[in-house]
Amino acid sequence: MELLLDISLLSMLVATAIGIAVSRDLLAAVMLSSIYGLLSANFFVTMDAVDVAFTEASVGAGISPLLMFATLAIVGRFERYPHQRALPALLLVVLTGAMLILATLDIPAFGDPNAPAQTHVAPRFINESGTEIGIPNMVTSVLASYRGFDTFGEVTVVFAAVVGVLALLGSSLPAAGRKLPDTLLQASNHRILRIVSKILVAPIMLFALYVQFHGDYGPGGGFQAGVIFAAAIIIYTMLFGLEAAMKVINVTVLRVLAAFGVLLYGSVGLVAMLNGKNFLDYDALAADPVHGQHYGIIVIELGVGITVAAVMMLIYFAFAGRLIDRSHKS
């Protein structure tokens, strides 16, 4: 039964990918990409990678389509030159795909008990994380503590991404009082959606806080919580307009928060160094090393959530401001 489910999911993934590749309707491609994210999340669940599935569902099927819809509102729904340079693109995809397939030949078979991950890495985390970190969710132990440097780099990359977007579109960030035209970014005429959103936005934000602070015990953490929180604000903006959102969300504050989250994460490492430990060694945060790990993980996950939420909202508002400028010029 499990094999049949895996085959079905993989078949739907391939069919969705082909549909995205051949579609000339960009709106349809965005919708298919969202479906692809949901299918991928289901596939990760079958592989017992619930945290990865959570991330894929919130990012791949949640926030990414919203940002792509904002892009479509600027560039249009259909490709202007759909057949131009198709052969070079096809050759590039085939070459890249062949290289990836060739690389997989050196990877151990999935589930191979003799793979290095099964003989060295996994036993270390499984046998020692409960004593060293003291939290039930082993994934959080790995990402927030054992791989703290790597996660810090990921947060920095997210922050660098918004810096790049604002460098290109920053002059178009909206200000309070500037009205957004009725487009994909403001579905103000849909009363049913507005009523339903009034009911759901608050629970979505509450769920984001749950995911943020329950990541020690179940699937979740700062990345997922930040995206969920930002999605609630973006949905509110789409349905009630940018002017209403600007009364609640200040762009300048978001810029500060995007940087503050990264600084909060890094400051935990500096505190550890000031106490004579290595950078991001949470044992230095309390007399009991296990308590120190708890405190450190809570703080750095909070920093991740703040940065991710602020970055996602800033990117959306940058596209919204670009659309405003475009509508004023026309």
TrEMBL record:
The keyword Zinc-finger does not apply. It holds the Pfam family MbhE. InterPro entries: CPA3_antiporter_subunitB (IPR050622), MnhB (IPR007182), MrpA_C/MbhD (IPR025383), MrpA_C/MbhE (IPR046806). It is found in: Cell membrane. Its main location: membrane. The keyword Membrane applies. Residues 192-314 form the Na+/H+ antiporter MnhB subunit-related protein domain. This is Na(+)/H(+) antiporter subunit B. Keywords: Cell membrane, Membrane, Transmembrane, Transmembrane helix. Residues 12-73 form the MrpA C-terminal/MbhD domain. Residues 114-175 form the MrpA C-terminal/MbhE domain. Belongs to the CPA3 antiporters (TC 2.A.63) subunit B family. The chain crosses the membrane at residues 12-37, 57-75, 87-105, 151-171, 192-211, 223-242, 254-274, 294-319. It is a multi-pass membrane protein.
